Amino acid sequence: MPRPSAVRGASHLRTPESIRHALLAALMSLVAASLQAAPTLRLCTADVPFYPYTMPDGSGYSQQLIRLALRGLPVQLKNHMAPRARCLQDSRSGQADALVGVFSTERLQWLSYPMKGGEPDAGSSLAQLRFMVYRRSGSTADWDGKRFYHLDHGAIGVQFGFSYGLELERLGVPLDDKAPSAEQVLRKLERGRIPLAVLQEEQGQALVQTRFAGKIEVLPQPFMQQNLYLIVTREFRARHPALVTQLWAAIASARGSAEYQRILATKPRPLGPQ
User: Fold this and answer.
1) Which SUPFAM superfamilies does its entry note (predicted)?
2) Which helix (H) or strand (E) holds 248?
3) What H or E segment, with its residue span, contains residue 89?
4) Is 106 a member of any domain?
């Protein structure tokens, strides 16, 4: 019969299975520690569609591009939806670290953009946008690329909280920016409450072709073109300068990837009620 001390020693021998379990537990602990140490990027996106770039369900092109770019970076993404104006307010008050939008000099005091040679870096943008002018079918209200005509003292409709409205204000035209969604802007146009509307091209086109077919038409001259960016607060960038630089570079790289080209070949889910 083996001595008691020998039996006790045998009970402490590790089997291959127990070793695997121990290694797995150690790996999970390392992953958990890494996630705990990684900073969180709190992204606020609009709670109404900005089709096809941001969607409330997260299926927008830009949302998917951001997720691609974040792969492998030491950061956790936390996304919340809010009205556009609330996202801006949250970024200013420290409740959000990032949002998706176009360059605006008025917001440089608290927001940071990828820059190159003193200008916003188009190579690090999420997308290029065109904003088009819409009118009721048969209306004489017009835009020739420089000036508006036949407004009859009416205001031009835009979505609330979007910076392209500032460009209209610089032209000295009256502005109706009370509607939070593109569909609500076009409803005002359809009902004759405004003579013209300015909307992002792909979103306006999707609505005109489906819900306003034969009632609203797009004018040939675009109002303006802008790049869409992942914008971070100056506070977040000051705390994580290397990470933000890596993130913007990763967006530029992911945008040219084969995986993102496959995403672009598939349209986001159809526009829901707005």
Assistant:
1) Periplasmic binding protein-like II
2) helix 241-255
3) helix 84-93
4) yes
Specify whether the CB–CB gap between 236 and 41 falls below 8 A.
yes
In the chain, the number of structural domains is 2
Task: Give the whole-angstrom CA distance, residue 74 versus residue 14.
Answer: 35
Residues 171 and 187 in one domain: yes
pLDDT band of residue 163 (cuts 50, 70, 90) is: confident
In a domain, 24, yes or no: no
| Same-domain check for residues 75 and 91 | yes
Give whole-number Cα distances, 235 to 55, 73, 131, 242, in Å.
26, 19, 30, 13
Residue burial 190-214, b: 16+ Cβ < 10 Å; e: rest: beeebbbbbbbebbbebbbeeebee
Q: Are residues 219 and 138 in the same domain?
A: yes
Could you tell me whether strands 224-233 and 40-46 are parallel, antiparallel, or unpaired per DSSP bridges? unpaired
Task: Tell whether 114 and 245 lie within a shared domain.
Answer: yes
The alpha carbon of residue 126 and the mean position of all alpha carbons in its chain are separated, in whole angstroms, by: 8
Across 71-101, b (16+ Cβ under 10 Å) vs e yields eeeebeeeeebbbbebbbebbeeeebbbbbb
The domain that holds 241 is classified in CATH as 3.40.190.10
Task: Count CB neighbours of 127 within 10 A.
Answer: 18
Q: Which residues contact 267 (CB under 8 A, 6 or more apart)?
A: 52
Per-residue pLDDT at 24:
64
- The residue length of the chain stands at 274
User: pLDDT confidence of 28, banded at 50, 70, 90?
Assistant: low
Residues 140 and 157 in one domain: yes
Chain CA centroid to CA 193, Å? 30
